[in-house]
UniProtKB/TrEMBL annotation:
InterPro entries: GPCR_Rhodpsn_7TM, Olfact_rcpt, OR51/52/56-like. It holds the Pfam family 7tm_4. This is G-protein coupled receptors family 1 profile domain-containing protein. It is a multi-pass membrane protein. Keywords: Membrane, Olfaction, Sensory transduction, Transducer, Transmembrane, Transmembrane helix. It comes from Rangifer tarandus platyrhynchus (Svalbard reindeer). PANTHER family: OLFACTORY RECEPTOR 56A3 (PTHR26450:SF40), OLFACTORY RECEPTOR 56B1-RELATED (PTHR26450).
Amino acid sequence: MTAHQNGSISTEISDFLLNCFVRSPSWQLWLSLPLSLLFLLAMGANSTLLITIRLEASLHEPMYYLLSLLSSLDMALCLTVIPKVLAIFWFDLRSISFFACFLQMFIMNSFFAMESCTFMVMAYDRYVAICHPLRYPSIVTNQFIAKAAIFILARSVFLTLPIPILSGRLHYCGRNIIENCLCANMSVSRLSCSDITINRLYQFTAGWTLLGSDLILIFLSYTLILRAVLRLKAQGAVAKALSTCGSHAILILFFSTVLLVFVFTLMVEKKLSPDVPVLLNILHHVIPPARNPIVYGVRTEEIKQGIQRLLKKEW
């Protein structure tokens, strides 16, 4: 118990309760099956992709190392959110400790930023491959990928670590029910008795600094790629050039579209059911991990052949 100067008494809380679709209990029933299937698909497809790239010597190239990094991030994001959501749906395990909540918040923010930055590095990889093909082997080396991975990790952790720290230092004195299925920053911060202006400002600034800069650089890379492709005169050269970055462009398009839909939904949330942004947030942590390896597996001939060779070895 904590006494305040005005004589009121508040209770310090030790954990949170995730209020996951309690207003729409039928959603839990209908979502649990597709969500669990998408989760299994995401884990299976990404594991297959990682094993294929690991075992196939022909795939030990910078572009596939970046794809391995993307798959690892997808799996981490999926594992951070979906098992807890399914535990709520199936067993009503809504309680989550302070530590687990803020750890989930940190992983969601930092790994999402890492994924965005990985897309940006992949766009640069495609730019060099198409616009400077002769210099590609000397520019995009294994050493470059190692440095890029360190940059992705350091930038994302450095800029997103203050988000859970700022939320963790707030005073939580009574309400402990999070109106969400996961520990989103503002969903948690709104429960505190403290002023959360700094939390709002930092999340907005960090979010748009990270994602905004990545999207601008990705757009610039593809503008330069498109300009270079349109200048190609050789027969079939345009189709070949576009096919080398088609998979990446599809994933970027989905990534940007989902992000914009989510932001737009938050802006007009007063006109929608409060469960809609929550649903979009959950789906954003399972649909991309399930979709990304399939897009690359279907559209990248080298990966498709590598998976086929591995399956033949198993049989």
